[in-house]
């Protein structure tokens, strides 16, 4: 004869059952980088542009994050998104990046450089000033074309201009639906002694771990992938590149990452300060804007040591990698 169910035990079990039912299901598709299992990591992140919600899955092997599901149409999530793409720091950013290129690859001296996702062309201008024959790709090529640059809509369209001695992907790889396929295409365009630079937000950095779903640079669903150093190096190795140098900070990215992510934790409207600095249409209430303005100098003072701590600990908000086709370290470059 079976035992009689205990109503009290049933009541205790119900909250646990409800918790299990409401959790997102385990994603069974393998990791696109290392084929390990993906598991739910963030759930119900709201896109600041469209209001739609997305999840982020994480690989138990290489640590890469994958936005889920991929939007059927990406364009609605970019409407009004960029503003002035790099805001008030554009020129500083371009100078810092071309200094890295010069350190690793030397002056242009008429050699060819390709900037994948060149935006308004600020970095192309800095590269041209250092002697590079610079071209770019961009979904909206008109702003950079107005500066006199050849800008294409895809890598295939600029293939005849190669081989390129330098290819840069400054915060563009995370937007691509198939990063490994994109880097495979880049590999075909790079000269035998060429250098590739890739910058992405660091999904394993202090900022990501501190702020979680409120992290500014998570930016779903425009960021389809969320890279770790392990995952990015693996993609490069899979596509016949060898990483030769790593950096763990882009100052203005890391600083605004600390500032805005902290504000996102306490304000109902996300990215109010970031929208103002990048000259986008302002959102949120008057109180959101006042609090953001008052907090900016205070949070900046607190964030500065955190930026340098992240870089020193190799756990910043941004990850930069230089890679070569030959796998040999350039004489002028430094790595980890």
Automatic annotation (TrEMBL):
<dbReference type="GO" id="GO:0032259">
    <property type="term" value="P:methylation"/>
</dbReference>
<dbReference type="Pfam" id="PF13489">
    <property type="entry name" value="Methyltransf_23"/>
</dbReference>
<dbReference type="InterPro" id="IPR029063">
    <property type="entry name" value="SAM-dependent_MTases_sf"/>
</dbReference>
<keyword id="KW-0489">Methyltransferase</keyword>
<feature type="transmembrane region" description="Helical">
    <location>
        <begin position="290"/>
        <end position="311"/>
    </location>
</feature>
<keyword id="KW-0812">Transmembrane</keyword>
<protein>
    <submittedName>
        <fullName>SAM-dependent methyltransferase</fullName>
    </submittedName>
</protein>
<keyword id="KW-0472">Membrane</keyword>
<keyword id="KW-0808">Transferase</keyword>
<keyword id="KW-1133">Transmembrane helix</keyword>
<dbReference type="GO" id="GO:0008168">
    <property type="term" value="F:methyltransferase activity"/>
</dbReference>
